[in-house]
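[agent] plan:
  1. take the single chain provided in the ticket
  2. run structure prediction with default settings
  3. attach structure tokens to the ticket
  4. add a short note for the reviewer (M.T.)
[agent] executing step 1
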Amino acid sequence: MKNLPACKTCVSSGFLCNSCQKKLDEGEITEFELDLAKDLLELEERDGRFDFLRDISFYKAIDFEDVVILVVDKKDKIRISKELLTWIKETYEIDQILLIEKTNKPRAVIEGLISPAKVISLNEIFLATGDIEFKGILRKSDKDKILFTKEELEDLVLELTGNVTRIEFA
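[agent] step 2 finished; step 3 output follows
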């Protein structure tokens, strides 16, 4: 794998260096991410069906009840096979996996989280403090199709992009 949430040596060995231990202690990475990264590295090495993992970047995994959000590189969404997703679901007893591109752009992240629903508009709001927030407007008719509540979407977009985004349904 090209990128992992922690050092490749730490992931493989299970023993964390000071830097990776600090990330774990501060909540930047989780035990789940370390376990998943280790399993993916082992799959890459031992199973020829998963050779494509050599070219994949895995940045983060957010375990959100029955849904896991995997943050990968832009082109990696296409490379990841259904067979791998099925293996992850069965191994970790997950109902659904969402693949999200690593980006700091809220639109791409929101669209990934609400798919197949669409964003009606996304506006930049310049605050008097000099900060920038975003306001995403989604269709009210899509509300029941979206896996997450308004508040959960806002929290996830903040975690994934670092941008404060307000979600509204119209």
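[agent] step 4 note for reviewer: The longest strand covers residues 119-126.
[agent] ticket updated
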